[in-house]
Design brief:
16 helices; 2 domains; binds NADP nicotinamide-adenine-dinucleotide phosphate; about 325 residues; Rossmann fold; 8 strands; alpha/beta
């Protein structure tokens, strides 16, 4: 899979087009500021009474009410939470967007699972940053970029791919790498990675290891440092050098433990569970379950978050992090 070429990431198709960013949260703030700094005509669409209005104005960004914003958009960028997008589209964007405008997403979920079915005259694009909003802005400010995935779901104008490429360039992604994919592949791999590795997998691994050490009588602080705090040191090595590179940088003792014990922790039962989790994502069972959870007021999520907040890891974590206030600076 080759990254897109500079010709495919030409910023020109965005010239003289009005981009409206809906939402000024994690991604919305980063995209709006990056586009402004790339000399794109950008405004922010915010709901009445939005807490984000003051910050937009401090940043010198124009803010419009959702209807006026949608009416003025050549490119409408959906950067409100995924569960809010279908309602925003149905109530504001579908009736107000100009014929042949473009609708751009940073994640394929709602299109892939048909939670939102756009008008057929619209271009429907995706530029999905492979990083959180803070990094999208920070890397741009440093003259770098976060890589991104690009996809076209609907090409009504014939120029959807070029427009998505221009957006990726304006948001700084062309400085790193942009890969063409589909809404389906982006959505399914993103959900799988957050469930199996990034959130679900890593969170359970840390918690189980912390509990194993503290149940065996080791001090909580030591368990916290070696099972949680040091994850970042290894993650940084893995990101910059790969798994083999990380293994070249650790001691022989650590490498031998990795070689002989790692696959006992993540063995066949975990691999079997990963396959089932992927199947649930691909056949839509996960999306159905999530929708039911949201419609019933998030009972599972609420209980899960309350239990996680009350876990001893949190109290010891707060004490340890207070000793190093600079950690919060990233
Ligand atoms: N978080 C990430 O770093 C990340 C990474 C990759 C992709 N994405 C994708 O990027 C998109 C945006 O996610 P996000 O995490 O950036 O969202 P977010 O930070 O949760 O979005 C917050 C913004 O949405 C607005 N908002 C919330 N509820 C609203 C409602 N009911 N009506 C109108 N506006 C509402 C908020 O308005 P107020 O300002 O008025 O509160 C705020 O400006 C999603 O598709 C997500 O999957 C996110």
């Amino acid at each position: 899979m080759e990254p897109l070429t500079p010709q495919q990431l030409d910023p020109a198709p965005l010239a003289s087009r009005r981009v409206v960013v809906f939402g000024f949260g994690a991604q919305g703030r980063a995209h709006a500021l990056n586009l402004r700094d790339s000399s794109v005509d950008v405004v922010v669409g915010l709901r009445p009474g939005s807490a984000s209005r003051a910050e937009c104005e401090r940043e010198g960004l124009d803010v419009l009410a959702p209807e006026a914003a949608a009416e003025s958009a050549d490119v409408a960028v959906m950067l409100v939470p995924d569960e809010v997008q279908p309602g925003l589209y149905a109530e504001i964007l579908a009736p107000c967007l100009r014929p042949e405008a473009a609708l751009l997403f940073a994640h394929g979920y709602n299109i892939h699972y048909r939670k939102l079915v756009p008008r057929t005259d619209l271009d429907v694009l995706m530029v999905a940053p492979l990083g959180i909003g803070e990094q999208v802005r920070r890397q741009y400010e440093l003259g770098r970029g976060v890589p991104a995935l690009l996809a076209v779901h609907q090409d009504a104008s014939g120029g959807a791919q070029a427009l998505a490429g221009a957006y990726a360039a304006a948001n700084g992604h062309a400085r790193a790498a942009v890969f063409a994919t589909s809404f389906a592949a982006e959505t399914e791999t993103d959900l799988f990675a957050e469930q199996a590795v990034l959130c679900g997998g890593v969170g359970q691994l840390i918690t189980a290891a912390f509990e194993t050490l503290t149940e065996a009588g080791y001090p909580e602080e030591i368990a916290y440092f070696c099972c949680l705090h040091e994850v970042k040191l290894i993650a940084d090595l893995v990101q910059s050098r790969g798994l083999a590179g990380m293994r070249r940088s650790i001691s022989s003792t650590a490498a031998y433990g990795d070689a002989t014990r790692g696959s006992r922790v993540i063995g066949q039962p975990s691999r079997d569970a990963m396959r089932v989790i992927l199947a649930e994502i691909r056949d839509g069972r996960f999306a159905q379950e999530l929708e039911a959870e949201m419609q019933s007021g998030q009972p599972t999520l609420r209980a899960w978050k309350a239990a996680a907040e009350a876990h001893p890891l949190e109290a010891v974590g707060a004490r340890v992090r207070a000793l190093m206030p600079w950690l919060d600076e990233g």
